[in-house]
# Entry
Amino acid sequence: MTRTFKILAVAMAVVFLLSGMALAAKKKKAEKELDVGKALLDSFDLIEKGKMDPAEKLLNKVLEKDPGNPLALNNLASVMVKKKKFDKADTYLNQALPRAKGYMVAVNRVCSVGGICMAFKPVAGGTGNQDLEPLIKMNIDMVKQYMSAGPLPGKGER
# Structure
């Protein structure tokens, strides 16, 4: 009976060890999961600081987790404006528009990027009282006007 007891004890120890490893892996995975709200706030801060490449990477991660997120697409369009990639900015804004209607945000700060396209910083937590659709339409209009304008006299491309 002693030998059976030892085998049973070892088997139980292995089961507990494997369960603990599985729980640790699950916890680690949960820690790596992206918090979309925090990522949107962080990406806005990066845009304000002029750190467009890290902002773009973070916004792309948001879009991986929440494809078509209109706020992420709008703010990614702002990054493209800063990089003078107006066609991409226009594409992102038009992708955002269908999901923007009824997407309520509480915008507490706006930054102008390149003087034309605005990124919006949402209030952390809760829902907002502003429909994102008219804000995105405004950005679309600004980008289209900018794209249709010729080069600045004596300064070349915009």
